[in-house]
Amino acid sequence: MTEFRLVESKEIVMGKLGHGCDLLEELTNITTERCVKLGRIEAIGAVQKARIGFYNQKTRIYQYYSFDYPLEITKLSGNISLKDGKPFVHAHIILSDESGKSFGGHLASGTVVFACEFMLEAFDGPAFNRCFDEDTGLPLWSKLMDS
User: Fold this and answer.
1) Domain count, the chain
2) Is residue 119 part of a domain?
3) Closest by CA position to 27, among listed 101, 145, 116
4) pLDDT digit string (tens) for 19-38?
5) Does pLDDT of 41 surpass 50?
6) Residue 19 covered by a domain
7) What is the SS3 assignment for 54?
8) CATH number at residue 75
9) What is the CB-side half-sphere exposure of residue 74 using CA atoms within 13 A?
10) Cys staple from 60: which of 53, 101, 132, 137, with CB 3.0 to 4.6 Å?
């Protein structure tokens, strides 16, 4: 069943991440420091190396791929919700190499920033909480409909 809820923008934060930091960890730190429980995130820039994941729907296990060379962030898009009561950044990323070949997947820890500009939009209202979903084996948003 499709579930949704209307949300309204609360604040927008724009900035740049530090050279050499872990992309996912730093985005998570910012959401935690700003107490963002519900939001979206975007970013562009470049990484020194990357680690991305693909969720195997049959085995219900993430497969991770590492790239130990510089790549451009052509698009990072994601959301912020709560998982186990803490802010959780769920982001997907598209990266391109020097020949223009692209790679994409689930952003994972181990992606090291060369340069990165981000935009975080926080929303007002109750947080979306992630709970185990039997159909997919993933921690997905649960009970979104207004009462």
Assistant:
1) 1
2) yes
3) 116
4) 999 999 999 999 999 999 99
5) yes
6) yes
7) strand
8) 3.30.1330.80
9) 12
10) 137
For the question of whether the overall pTM of this predicted structure is more than 0.70, the answer is yes
Q: What share of the chain is helix, strand, coil (3-state, %, to 5)?
A: 5, 60, 35
Per the structure, the complete domain to which residue 64 belongs is given by 10-142
Question: Residues of 34-61 as b/e, b for ≥16 C-beta within 10 angstroms?
Answer: eebbbbbbebebebbebbbeeeeeeeee
Residue 5 within any structural domain of the chain:
no
pLDDT confidence of residue 145: 60
Q: What is the pLDDT of residues 43-100, one digit of tens each?
A: 999 999 999 999 999 999 999 999 999 999 999 999 999 999 999 999 999 999 999 9
Are 44 and 106 contacting, i.e. CB atoms less than 8 angstroms apart? no
pLDDT (mean) for 109-125:
97
Residue 122 falls in which region: left (phi positive, over 0), alpha (psi -120 to 50) or beta: beta
Residue 101 placed within a domain: yes
Residue 90 tokens read as 């769920």
